[in-house]
Every structure is written in structure tokens, then in C-alpha cells.
Design goal:
Helices cover 73% and strands 0% of the residues. With 136 residues, it is mostly helical.
Length: 136
């Protein structure tokens, strides 16, 4: 369930699981809650492990990931740092099957030489566009 993977923590994951596996409303609801808690805890552990593996792979291939980011035009229309972090985060979430990146991975990706060079060219082009034409 992609919603479970991309959920923001235990509480959201428990809500999703409770919606998918509702209690019967009988005497065994306490058992249902306990089993649901255990299942969510195990699921959360598996999600953390999957995310760690996914981001180890991303970090071991940062130059290739940066190239994909640029080839797909993710940063083309983004001109400020906070927005770049948002679109790069969305890119990484899509790349890793819904796992949110840690700030470290995002910073390393946006600091790659290819990305920095792209940003320099982008800023220079933006400056040329906004320079007014002065009459002679």
C-alpha cells in the first residue's frame, strides 16, 4: 500500500490499517487493536529498512540520480531553494517507491556538480531575461 509507505508516521499508518481492517465491534476488539498495533509496528520496521536500502542506493549513485533529475526537467521552472527542495523531494519519493528522503540525501543530491552547474546557468539566464532594455 503506497499510502502506508508515504504516511508521516505511526499514527497515520495505524489509521490506514484500521480503515483497511476495521474492528468487528464485538468482545474481541481489544485483541483486534493489539494485533493491529503489532502489525503496524512490524510494517513500520520493514518500511524503515526498505527506505534505508533505497536511499543507500540513491546515495551510492548520486551523479546518476542528479543526471536523471536534470534530464527529466524537474528543476527547469524552479527558481528558489525551498521550491527546489520540494520538487527534488517529490522526485526522490517517486524514485524510491514512496519513501521520504532524509535531509542529508536531498542536500547531497542538490549539491552535485551537475546540479550546481545547471543552477548557475539557470540564474544567469534569469538575469538576462529581467535586465531592462535601456533606450540609447
Amino acid at each position: 500500500m503506497p499510502a502506508v509507505v508515504s504516511a508521516d508516521g505511526y499514527g497515520q499508518r495505524r489509521e490506514i490499517a484500521a480503515g483497511a481492517f476495521p474492528a468487528s465491534g464485538g468482545e474481541d476488539d481489544w485483541l483486534h487493536r493489539r494485533l493491529l498495533q503489532q502489525a503496524v509496528a512490524l510494517g513500520q520496521q520493514a518500511i524503515r529498512q526498505d527506505a534505508a536500502e533505497a536511499y543507500r542506493a540513491v546515495e551510492s549513485a548520486l551523479d546518476e540520480t542528479a543526471a536523471r533529475l536534470l534530464e527529466q526537467g524537474v528543476l527547469d521552472d524552479v527558481h528558489d531553494a525551498p521550491a527546489r527542495r520540494i520538487v527534488a523531494t517529490d522526485f526522490l519519493i517517486g524514485l524510491t517507491g514512496g519513501h521520504r528522503p532524509k535531509a542529508r540525501t536531498l542536500t547531497l543530491l542538490l549539491g552535485r556538480p551537475a546540479v550546481k552547474e545547471f543552477l548557475i546557468v539557470q540564474k544567469a539566464a534569469a538575469r538576462r531575461e529581467i535586465q531592462p532594455v535601456l533606450p540609447l
